[in-house]
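Record type: ASSEMBLY
Status: queued
Input:
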Amino acid sequence: MGLKIFNTLEREVVEFVPLDPAGKKVGMYCCGPTVYDFAHIGNFRTFVFTDLVRRYLDFKEFDVTHVMNITDVEDKIIRTVRESDTSLKEFTRRFEKAFLEDMDALGCKAPTKKPRATEYIGPIIKLIKKLVDRGVAYQASDGSVYFSIEKYRGCGCHYGQLVNLNFGEMRTGERVADDEYEKESLADFALWKARVPEDGEVFWKSPWGEGRPGWHIECSAMSTELLGKSFDLHLGGEDLKFPHHEDEIAQSEGAFEYGDGEHFVKFWMHGSHLLVEGKKMQKRLGNFFTLRDLTSKGYQPREIRYLMLSAHYREQFNFTFDGLDGARSALGRLDDCLLKLGETAAGEGTADSDVISAFERELDDDFNVAGAWRVVFDWIRDRNKELADESVTAESAANALATWEKINSVFGIENVEAPVPPEIQSLAEERQAARKAKDFQRSDEIRDQLAAQGWVIEDTPKGPRVKKA
RNA sequence: GGCGGGGUAGCCAAGUGGUAAGGCAGGGCUCUGCAAAAGCUCCAUUCGUCGGUUCGAUUCCGUCCCCCGCCUCCA
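Status: finished
Output:
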């Protein structure tokens, strides 16, 4: 069975065939965070999407090198550093740490490599030098180095691979006016920004004088440095298609020699944005959430992850609190079933290959997570039926758990069981004694008391089961 | 204005040229001391609009309406 993905480059769903002749190694690059603030759940939708791709490639037994950059030098960062007492490093490391903690909480596997832009200034300069030497970049009178789209196109290269560009028809809004540099053409973009007083102590030496890298160049430099001039997969949010990814292509294909049919990146994948209650997330609308905002409201990261994994990555997704509550219920159903299976299981199980291949068939189809969840929930219902009519054996339960483990290696919905505190446990025991004595008034009192503390009791034929509400 | 993605039950969300998965919420029943959990069951004659093609369209074509994203340092 082969994986098919929507390749932005081709604008259609195509078979995923890695560059590696053995079909084993996969180089994957994801545009990571700019660490100037806590990331919001919209950002995390993209990272949960890239994690799904990463995990599924692992599941398919590809040998994946997953690179995610950390952008730790950028206009907003420099401004904030200047306005505060911290150093660039101190400031960015703080948010990098927070970002990685959030990623971990959301069940995202750590990328193989997490290069920081500031630690790749050498390769960045090397790459810009290549572009200047090849005549597709120039230093302007302001000292900055720009990429010339005209010269690039003149070399027979194609600018506008990911989006259909029509510069004449484009709206050049306020954002261009902000960018007052001495460029030859409006479409040109900065590779190296000459040092200005506002940059403070944030600068590096280069053949073009002191300055700092432009936005796009870091990704070209780090990806080609770590994955080679051609690699398999590049992912990011849909807003990055243009200009960021388009410029990455231009910088890389402008700098390196590519043979016929060779490209910087073979497959591009873009995740759609998250809306909140039907609207774009904006601070002034009050619908701007970080992961920490949600966890402080009592939501669990796994619930957020589940919610994000309930919609196709190329569909715009509407985040709602109703949806988040629904995610909790759905996960509760999974947890309960798995808990019961765990109580019965013994020995090493074997995953049910029919279920796994049905699951795989769905994900092979450009990550049809909804279809995959259908397979999971149909399977859960069957397991519950067996549990209800007591036809589950220690072996079948173990097999079911092995099946789940395989599924969960892709979905990564952690099920951390809260340990039952001793005082809760003793209350539960007291209630059970009251029940035995048919003192239902007392036992219901205790149940209410437990509920008030966030614990629920389920009476089963095997005795009471205490779990977190 | 240019480019792109959508409109499927109360909500979220798959899907197919042959008569609508799954999840959440809701109703009923079984089980239970009562619950909870679970099971069974009900819940879109209908897939934004209007036309067309077809034996048959939600699925193909065209029209229109609406929503959303990008258009130069935002995932």
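Annotation: The first helix of chain A runs from residue 41 to 59.
Annotation: The two ends of chain A are 41 Å apart (CA to CA).
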